[in-house]
């Protein structure tokens, strides 16, 4: 069971916690329907275990005090309204806890001015980050060692995710759900929580170390190679040979590093490419199938439906309706 901890901070903006929490619950529920028995442990934690007042006036009662919070696989830091300095001054123990979680390998997501907690903890030194546009100048002055990417709504540095807005946080969460449960569950959550078309995370985020969250550099190179050649006919035996591995060793190392077989990874890449073409081009479904490496239309359709729980034609109809709907 993976543990996700949502930090509660006095005078926080509630949406930075409630939205990803509900999205993750939706993902967990959908995964259960699809037979994926991988529950999440979702916890809220405040510095002292006492209720926290939000900017909207609502009060959140945490599950635990920070000192009692377990090691987490994923941590969410909310935004503060305008100036986060007063909260930062009271957050020494929280910053120490964030450092420990990062050292233990947790993924950490912060939104808006919540990014300041990552910067204050020293976790973003020498790394890219973004924050709410209103706080750009102060952030640059306070954290000169952080590489602020003003033109991006999302940045990723290994397992540290910064989102400039709540909408960007939703994109980060869809990406993380994809890591946890795969593309079909992520697509289901995205369609149900977002009324507009979202561009893929990889296209809108500034990323360093973003190809994977594993340390096997040869497999990283193999992932990059598969992405670059995904539209071609690929024999995995030839790919293994290209990286001086036996097929058995290549499959074993790839699965150990990514949680997927090379074939599953290639299928993911091709389906993602097909999604983008269905959204942005006027190519026929047959032409798209060929462009992503499939000559058999029936096989392509079955694979697309397996991954996204809808056919290519139905998917295009849905996204085009969102793009071009006219009020009547």
Automatic annotation (TrEMBL):
Residues in HTH araC/xylS-type domain copies: 220-318
Domain of life: Bacteria
CDD domains: GATase1_AraC_2
Keywords, sorted A to Z: DNA-binding, Transcription, Transcription regulation
GO MF term set: DNA-binding transcription factor activity; sequence-specific DNA binding
Secreted in keyword set: no
Keyword DNA-binding recorded: yes
Database matches in PANTHER family: ARAC-FAMILY TRANSCRIPTIONAL REGULATOR, TRANSCRIPTIONAL REGULATORY PROTEIN
Name assigned to this protein: Transcriptional regulator, AraC family with amidase-like domain
